[in-house]
Amino acid sequence: MTGTMTIDQLTAEVERIFQAAGASELQARTVAEVIVAGERDGCASHGIYRIEGCLRTIEAGKVDVKAMPELDDDGSAVIRVRANGAYSVAGLAVGLPALAERARALGLAALVINDCTHFSALWPEVEQITALGLAGIAMCPSYATVAPAGGSKPLLGTNPLAFGWPRPGGRPYVFDFATSFMARGDVELHRIAGKPLPEGCAVDRDGNPTTDPQAALDGAMLPFGGHKGSAISTMIELMAGAMIGDMTSAEALDYLGTTTLAPKHGELLLAFCPERFAAGRADPFARAETLLEAIVGQGARLPSQRRFAARAQAEAEGIELSAEQMQMLARMRERVGLAG
């Protein structure tokens, strides 16, 4: 049976599941918010589908859902949060106020989140930055499931990169993409649905091109755009792994020993104050609108427009869940010992 829930109702339901799994109030709330954001915005691969993997990671003891992230702020442009094994979104909640304050004061600032478990898309992070009137970039490694361009064995992660620009009075300009040809969650959804992958997406364990989702999961995904995606993915390994003193994707996989759990590593977020960079030369937001309106004026679609359309519908009509999704929620409730 299908069902419709308001955003608040679904958030409360998911939060209840994580609290029953032992999560602190902060972690249960922040994890629930980002999962429901995926459903709200029509991104099924980052919605309630993710609950099972999160619970599996908790049960394996690879994330500390009772941990309280700690802020380490020495007054410089680099702010650090020690997540202490918590989910990354809890670390962001602790560090975001300091990041925003420092970016406004200095023009730009960085937030390093160390020792965290990451399972979600990055657009919720950059949208939290843009909501404060700042531009933002977020990046993190994953675990090694992607072969570098010209290679055939997993070494890089799907390594997402997100950017957000605030648009006063409207939805921000946001893009968020994996540097792999396809997000791993989408490969999983293709496997579940029995659908073949696009050509050029992956290789099997012998390095041969494949459109079989299971063969891709057993082998390696490929970066988007060949050497270009491979180079961006490597940049993320360097900046959000080596540079911040945290795990690269290969190290994260070694730590976990499996790709069935959410990876542990670090995350890097950068915040920029457009007014400080413009320094009174011109209104950066007005100039940005001229550019973005010109793009739309050519009939092009801005990234995230489909997400925002789905969000508006969900805000007005609630989130419609399929029979499979309703069954999934029921299984997750049962898994953590909740009735009904």
TrEMBL record:
It comes from the Bacteria. PANTHER family: MALATE DEHYDROGENASE, OXIDOREDUCTASE-RELATED. This is Malate/lactate/ureidoglycolate dehydrogenase, LDH2 family. The keyword Membrane does not apply. GO terms for molecular function: oxidoreductase activity. Belongs to the LDH2/MDH2 oxidoreductase family. The keyword Ion transport does not apply. Keywords: Oxidoreductase. SUPFAM superfamilies: L-sulfolactate dehydrogenase-like. Pfam families: Ldh_2. InterPro entries: Mal/L-sulf/L-lact_DH-like_ah (IPR043144), Mal/L-sulf/L-lact_DH-like_NADP (IPR043143), Mal/L-sulfo/L-lacto_DH-like_sf (IPR036111), Malate/L-lactate_DH-like (IPR003767).
